[in-house]
């Protein structure tokens, strides 16, 4: 038995000196000492050779040896777990940072903000109004009575009848509300979303965005209107862009004109966007109709004014050469990512 006790002491020294730097080494320790064919099992098997009068004392020695090996295994296992946890929580400050995906404004927001910025430099304030409007502010106040044929061009979505509530067809309704509560001089632009009952296609949509402008004061002339719009076009598209005015008709302005610019997509050589004319319409304009002024108690003999309105989608189409209006509302990330550098 003396020889077996010496062997156990040697095993304990060997176990005490054992080290492990990874999970495989810990597993190898378990198999060698605590496995079904390990040294602890082998030593425990010597119990059958111990005399009966020494079994109790020797059993205690064998049990202490087994606990010693198991404690060592737990220590090695815990050291590996702590090492892995420490590695997982450590930060290598020399590594490059994780890339951060940078978003961008929607192209319509970019262009809208540019338009607003240009007119703010000319002294225009910004006014906004509700998208659900009553018939008076949307049509009646703008010289569009119920039987007026021009209403057919602005077929819209009605919320209710008697009284009539509808999705506004233009931001002229905001101009109406401004004239209702403010006396001249008035100088505002009215950006916002509008709705019309249109078939959705590459060139039209049932909702779009407008920026309309209104300037009312004494001695305001058509020359003031033209110079204001000349300045806008040059600031938005560049000094080289050509401009022309064509007589037109709008119920709320008289005289009225549509404004064209030279096509930026084909350099005025002719393409599908400009319908091979070299010119693209960008806005409608005119002198405010006296009837509109009188609707809000503004003396049309003392005050005159001009108004204009443009579609943000059309301006954006020319500025960034977008060939399909539906792209603006499809939320296609591939399309939107192209404007990251345009903020």
Automatic annotation (TrEMBL):
Gene name as annotated: pheS
Protein's name according to its UniProt entry: Phenylalanine--tRNA ligase alpha subunit
Cofactor(s) recorded in Swiss-Prot or TrEMBL: Mg(2+)
Subunit structure of this chain's protein: Tetramer of two alpha and two beta subunits.
Top-level class of the enzyme under EC nomenclature: ligase
UniProt KW keywords: Aminoacyl-tRNA synthetase, ATP-binding, Coiled coil, Cytoplasm, Ligase, Magnesium, Metal-binding, Nucleotide-binding, Protein biosynthesis
Cofactor binding note: Binds 2 magnesium ions per tetramer.
Organism placement in taxonomy: Bacteria, Pseudomonadati, Bacteroidota, Chitinophagia, Chitinophagales
Catalytic activity: tRNA(Phe) + L-phenylalanine + ATP = L-phenylalanyl-tRNA(Phe) + AMP + diphosphate + H(+)
Keyword Ligase among UniProt keywords: yes
